[in-house]
Design a protein that fits this description.
This protein is an all-beta fold. The chain has strands at about 1-5, 10, 20-25, 35-40, 45-50, 55-60, 65-70, 75-80, 90-95, 110-115. The chain is built from no helices and ten strands.
Length: about 120
């Protein structure tokens, strides 16, 4: 199936930007709906954005107008461009399929938005 590795997180001030990458290995990437999820300390992991095989997208209400999900099937990679970041965006960001597959959860990448 797939193996997924997230990267691109870091510390950024409110109003700043980051671009996250999710590199996939294995077959089937181009036909799967992919998604970004995030988890703040002590909270449930939640859905941030999804992108289907035809490039249609969905965004959670809290990130609409600020985040953009995209994919490059030739590179087996999905991206999350995050602009106008807020402290409440802080958390560990994960990629997975939508619906998620338990075995594909990785380490994620930490995003911290703080002044």
């Amino acid at each position: 199936q797939l193996q997924l590795v997230e990267s691109g997180g870091g510390l950024v001030q409110p109003g700043g930007s980051l671009r996250l990458s999710c590199a996939a290995s294995g077959s089937g990437f181009s036909v799967y709906t992919m998604a970004w999820y995030r988890q703040a300390p002590g909270k449930q992991r939640g859905l941030v954005a999804t992108i289907k095989r035809d490039n249609t997208t969905f965004y959670g209400n809290s990130v609409k107008g600020r985040f953009t999900i995209s994919r490059d099937n030739a590179k087996n990679t999905v991206y999350l461009q995050m602009n106008s970041l807020k402290p409440e965006d802080t958390g560990v960001y994960y990629c997975n399929r939508q619906p998620p597959i338990r075995e594909l959860w990785g380490q994620g990448t930490q995003v911290t938005v703080s002044s």
